[in-house]
Design brief:
It is built from four helices and ten strands, in the order ββαββββαββββαα. By secondary structure, it is of the alpha+beta class. This is Alpha-type protein kinase domain-containing protein.
């Protein structure tokens, strides 16, 4: 994925496109749609995660958000690939997300693309909450989705801004990175419930939905 800096309605944005040597116009469009949908899932389930913590009377929830508000897909009008070889917008579709600054040493990965987070060190409060959030997504989606490759910026203020998620779904329909039930089962084998999971009364084992044959890719 390539990105550039741009402005829209007087706001600073990061503009993303697939690499020109690896994606066609149609592949780029489908990938960016999948990216935005998964970003919206992350945002939605983070909201329900915070609601869950409130209902469980669990205090001191970290200030976490997805870099989602204001994100959009854009299309280049009158696109001609032959005229855009030297242009930064070499595909007809782009993903724009609010530009965020990343101070040196502030970027952090909480889990891998194909692995659960293991952030249970005694002094890693944010890491424990992120692992519990991933568990919550799996449970709150009724076994449909697990969000992986959790990463973001941890600012000195304590705010955490998440971006660029990947995931696995029971229908294997979230994007080219999606390994379906295999990826979800691998995550469940690796995840170890921490004290936040227990405080939120998350189910230790969430069954993965096995889709009917007609719905399988």
């Amino acid at each position: 994925m390539h990105f550039w800096s741009g402005r829209y309605q007087e706001k600073h944005y990061a503009i993303f496109l697939g690499k020109p040597t690896r994606t066609t116009n149609n592949e780029n469009r489908e990938d960016l749609i999948s990216e935005l949908i998964l970003l919206s899932y992350g945002h939605y389930f983070l909201s329900s995660f915070k609601t869950r913590a409130k209902l469980a009377n669990v205090k001191a929830v970290p200030n976490i958000r997805w870099n989602y508000e204001g994100a959009f897909l854009g299309r280049v009008q009158e696109f001609d690939p032959n005229d855009r070889k030297d242009s930064s917008l070499y595909h007809d579709t782009f993903l724009a997300v609010p530009y965020i600054t990343i101070p040196k040493g502030a970027e952090r990965k909480f889990s891998g693309t194909n692995s659960a987070g293991k952030n249970n060190q005694a002094d890693d409060n944010i890491g424990r909450w992120m692992d519990a959030y991933a568990h919550h997504v799996l449970e709150d989606s009724d076994g449909y989705l697990v969000i992986t490759d959790l990463q973001g910026v941890v600012y000195a203020s304590g705010e955490v801004v998440l971006f660029d998620p990947q995931g696995h779904t029971s229908l294997k329909d979230s994007g080219y990175w999606d390994k379906g039930q295999e990826g979800m089962n691998e995550w469940m084998r690796e995840h170890k419930c921490n004290r936040v999971c227990k405080q939120l009364k998350l189910t230790p084992q969430v069954p993965v939905i096995d889709p009917p044959p007609a719905e399988r890719p």
